[in-house]
């Protein structure tokens, strides 16, 4: 992933933020929305695009855009920095190769211990039953 190219491809939009804030909220567009077209990006390789579209299927829109918003602070610049950091972190986390799982078998001792405990529990439960009258 070429971070510089990805950052240049981002589209930022200022939106009026909801919630408390008095007159300031009504006048300024401090909430920032960033959209990133994953499939049209030149900063990602074909394998990376495939991996992202697979892992982020729930977050990518039908147009192929990955959209994030931030309206935490009253400053548009701070919100822009926060949303940019979040987007890059999201991309980095989802581009990591999954670690292959090593299949392992339980040790002989562990199997014996489990079976012994199983027998003891069965014996305990069978001893609770009333005796059979023949």
Automatic annotation (TrEMBL):
<dbReference type="GO" id="GO:0043022">
    <property type="term" value="F:ribosome binding"/>
</dbReference>
<dbReference type="Pfam" id="PF00472">
    <property type="entry name" value="RF-1"/>
</dbReference>
<dbReference type="InterPro" id="IPR000352">
    <property type="entry name" value="Pep_chain_release_fac_I"/>
</dbReference>
<feature type="domain" description="Prokaryotic-type class I peptide chain release factors">
    <location>
        <begin position="16"/>
        <end position="32"/>
    </location>
</feature>
<dbReference type="GO" id="GO:0003747">
    <property type="term" value="F:translation release factor activity"/>
</dbReference>
<dbReference type="GO" id="GO:0004045">
    <property type="term" value="F:peptidyl-tRNA hydrolase activity"/>
</dbReference>
<comment type="similarity">
    <text>Belongs to the prokaryotic/mitochondrial release factor family.</text>
</comment>
<feature type="compositionally biased region" description="Basic residues">
    <location>
        <begin position="94"/>
        <end position="108"/>
    </location>
</feature>
<protein>
    <submittedName>
        <fullName>Peptidyl-tRNA hydrolase ICT1</fullName>
    </submittedName>
</protein>
<dbReference type="GO" id="GO:0072344">
    <property type="term" value="P:rescue of stalled ribosome"/>
</dbReference>
<feature type="region of interest" description="Disordered">
    <location>
        <begin position="94"/>
        <end position="134"/>
    </location>
</feature>
<keyword id="KW-0378">Hydrolase</keyword>
<feature type="compositionally biased region" description="Basic residues">
    <location>
        <begin position="115"/>
        <end position="134"/>
    </location>
</feature>
<dbReference type="InterPro" id="IPR045853">
    <property type="entry name" value="Pep_chain_release_fac_I_sf"/>
</dbReference>
């Amino acid at each position: 992933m070429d971070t510089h190219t990805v950052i240049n491809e981002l589209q930022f939009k200022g939106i009026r933020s909801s919630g408390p804030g008095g007159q300031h909220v009504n006048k300024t567009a401090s909430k920032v929305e960033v959209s990133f077209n994953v499939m049209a990006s030149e900063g990602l390789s074909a394998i990376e695009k495939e991996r992202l579209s697979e892992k982020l299927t729930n977050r990518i829109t039908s147009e192929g855009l990955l959209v994030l918003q931030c309206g935490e602070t009253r400053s548009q610049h701070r919100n822009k920095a926060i949303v940019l950091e979040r987007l890059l972190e999201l991309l980095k986390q989802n581009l990591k190769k999954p670690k292959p799982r090593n299949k392992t078998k339980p040790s002989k001792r562990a199997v014996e211990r489990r079976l012994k405990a199983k027998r003891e529990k069965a014996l305990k439960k069978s001893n609770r039953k009333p005796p059979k009258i023949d």
